[in-house]
Every structure is written in structure tokens, then in C-alpha cells.
């Protein structure tokens, strides 16, 4: 599974996540992403990445400039 780290602190749905927070990445074709954001892959292209914040029950997107890929 791909993971990313936040480059900057970020408020998401009323919760602050500090710089360095690690998040799981979901592919835009993943059924969890498509359930909430149908057809999103064609809309976001390569400028956003779907991630799962721990306090949310659905995935959301962050701009690629806000995260760095963790090489495992």
C-alpha cells in the first residue's frame, strides 16, 4: 500500500493534522473512492491524490504539492 507524509500542517474537516502525518493512499479507481467521488479519476488527473484520514469514514483528496511519497 502506498503511503504519503504531509509536508505542512493541514486542517481537514475540523481536525488539525501536523506536518509529518502519514496517510494511506487510495487509487482513484478504488471502490471506496468511486463510491464517494464517482468518475473522479478523469477530473483530478495527476494534481491530487486520494487519501484516507483516520477520523473520516470516506476518502478525500489532497493536492500533490501538500504531500511526499514515502518510499518503503
Shape: globular
Low-confidence stretches: none
The largest beta-sheet arranges its strands as 6-5-4-1-7
Our count of domains comes out at: 1
List keywords for this structure.
72 residues, alpha+beta, SH3 type barrels, two-stranded antiparallel ribbon, 2 helices, 7 strands
Describe the overall structure.
There is one protein chain. The protein is an alpha+beta fold and 72 residues long. The chain has a single domain (3-69), classed as SH3 type barrels (Roll). The chain is 15% helix and 38% strand. It is built from 2 helices and 7 strands; from the N terminus they run ββββααβββ. It has helices spanning 31-36, 40-44, and strands spanning 3-6, 10-12, 15-17, 22-26, 48-52, 60-63, 67-69. The strands form 2 sheets. It has a 5-stranded antiparallel β-sheet with strand order 6-5-4-1-7, with no helix packed on it. Strands 2-3 form a two-stranded antiparallel ribbon. β2 (10-12) and β3 form a beta hairpin. The longest helix is centred in the middle third of the chain and has 6 residues, at 31-36. The chain is globular and about 30 Å long. The mean pLDDT is 88.
Topology:
Elements: E1 3-6, E2 10-12, E3 15-17, E4 22-26, H1 31-36, H2 40-44, E5 48-52, E6 60-63, E7 67-69
Antiparallel strand pairs: 1-4, 1-7, 2-3, 4-5, 5-6
Quick summary of this structure?
This protein has 72 residues and is α+β, with helices and mostly antiparallel strands. 15% of the residues lie in helices and 38% in strands.
Amino acid at each position: 500500500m502506498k503511503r504519503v507524509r504531509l509536508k505542512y500542517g493541514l486542517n481537514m474537516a475540523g481536525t488539525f493534522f501536523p506536518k509529518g502525518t502519514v496517510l494511506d493512499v487510495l487509487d482513484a479507481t478504488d471502490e471506496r473512492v468511486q463510491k464517494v467521488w464517482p468518475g473522479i479519476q478523469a477530473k483530478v488527473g495527476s494534481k491530487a491524490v486520494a487519501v484516507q484520514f483516520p477520523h473520516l469514514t470516506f476518502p478525500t483528496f489532497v493536492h500533490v504539492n501538500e504531500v511526499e511519497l514515502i518510499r518503503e
